[in-house]
């Protein structure tokens, strides 16, 4: 703003606000889905929930905590399925190439 003029400064602010919103609400959940294998909606909701519950620290810890909970629930369901002698259901696991 100091060297480029008022309009360039406003354009810069608008760009960074739009970029921040796009990255935080679209790109991050998609990246988390591919790396942590958690649904993007669950990622977004967990960030909102833990962020409201514990502030910035909660928002930072939301994705690993949600992924750990998901793994724990899957293991509990697997053990339960084995105890009840139910047939295995195919998991939505990513392929080696993707």
Task: Annotate the secondary structure layout.
Elements: H1 6-36, H2 40-83
Describe this structure in words.
The structure is a single chain. This protein is an all-alpha fold. The chain has two helices and no strands. Helix 1 packs parallel to helix 2. The mean pLDDT is 82.
What is Rg? 20 Å
End-to-end separation in angstroms reads 44 Å
Give the low-confidence spans: none
**Strand and helix order:** HH
Question: Biggest sheet, in brief?
Answer: none
Q: In which range does the helix fraction lie? A: over 70%
Q: What is the average per-residue confidence, as pLDDT, rounded to a whole number?
A: 82
Q: Shape from CA axes? A: elongated
* Number of separate helices: 2
Number of strands: 0
Secondary-structure class = mainly alpha
The percent range for strand residues is: under 5%
């Amino acid at each position: 703003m100091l060297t480029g003029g008022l309009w360039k400064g406003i354009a810069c602010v608008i760009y960074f606000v739009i970029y921040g919103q796009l990255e935080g609400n679209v790109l991050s959940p998609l990246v988390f889905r591919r790396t942590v294998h958690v649904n993007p909606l669950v990622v977004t909701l967990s960030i909102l929930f833990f962020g409201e519950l514990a502030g910035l620290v909660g928002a930072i810890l939301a994705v690993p905590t949600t992924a750990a909970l998901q793994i724990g629930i899957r293991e509990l369901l697997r053990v339960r399925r084995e105890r009840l002698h139910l047939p295995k259901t195919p998991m939505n696991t990513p392929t080696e190439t993707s």
